[in-house]
């Protein structure tokens, strides 16, 4: 049993070094960079960004280099350890996809301008996703930007479906269903982009941007 309120990540803990070797940089495809650029461009200079499910922190640090106050959050102790070791001067805290409202570092940072969740919301059981999005809305102000990146479900009429993932249980979403869940929580979609499957990627990858109303 764990006393932590967030789900432990034995898969990511066990495979963190391999993950780091497999993905040694922040970008796998050009759109990865461009969607994060578009997210960052919509933020106020020096604003605070929460990277929920930051993993080894590559993308978080890209944003820190651009002058943002970044807070990387992840439930995997080992993934965070790699991030901390590589970028000790940045802020890394243990947590899950919920808004870490009780964390003293987050409280001290003031209003959050942007929330990034790249390939992390896929690990949240779908029935818990509305509560996660509501926690974001409860602790942000109008104008807060959100960028979700996730494996998409386009070919069936379903909202969400579990898919085989090498590391942990994961679900891929119809982007319209996730946009609707965001909308119901108080975030209006601003744009979406979808990369088609290719040899290295079995599923479409969706980039979904929204703003807090
Ligand atoms: C595929 S990695 C993505 C890392 C990073 N966001 C990126 O874009 O490179 C998924 C990360 O989500 C984290 N994760 C797993 N379950 C989570 C949850 N319930 N809430 C937040 N993050 C979670 C994992 O520990 C892992 O570090």
From TrEMBL:
Keyword annotations: Methyltransferase, Transferase
GO process annotations (BP): methylation
Xref: InterPro entries: SAM-dependent_MTases_sf
UniProt key word Glycoprotein: no
GO MF annotation, one: methyltransferase activity
Superkingdom in the source lineage: Bacteria
Name assigned to this protein: Methyltransferase family protein
Species of origin: Citricoccus muralis
């Amino acid at each position: 049993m764990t006393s932590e309120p967030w789900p432990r990540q034995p898969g990511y803990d066990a495979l963190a070094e391999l993950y780091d070797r497999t993905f040694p940089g922040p970008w796998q495809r050009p759109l990865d960079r461009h969607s994060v650029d578009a997210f960052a461009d919509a933020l106020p200079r020096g604003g605070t960004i929460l990277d929920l499910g930051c993993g080894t922190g590559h993308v978080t640090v890209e944003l820190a280099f651009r002058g943002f106050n970044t807070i990387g959050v992840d439930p995997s102790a080992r993934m965070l350890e790699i991030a901390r070791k590589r970028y000790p001067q940045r802020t890394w805290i243990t947590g899950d996809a919920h808004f870490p409202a009780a964390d003293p570092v987050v409280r001290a940072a003031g209003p959050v301008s942007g929330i990034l969740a790249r390939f992390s919301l896929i690990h949240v059981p779908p029935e818990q996703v509305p509560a996660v999005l509501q926690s974001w809305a409860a602790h942000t102000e109008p104008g807060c930007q959100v960028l979700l990146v996730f494996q998409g479900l386009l070919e069936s009429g379903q909202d969400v479906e579990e898919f085989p993932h090498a590391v942990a249980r994961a679900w891929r979403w119809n982007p319209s269903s996730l946009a609707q869940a965001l909308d119901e929580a108080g975030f209006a979609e601003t744009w979406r982009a979808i990369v088609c499957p290719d040899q290295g990627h079995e599923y479409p990858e969706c980039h979904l941007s929204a703003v807090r109303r």
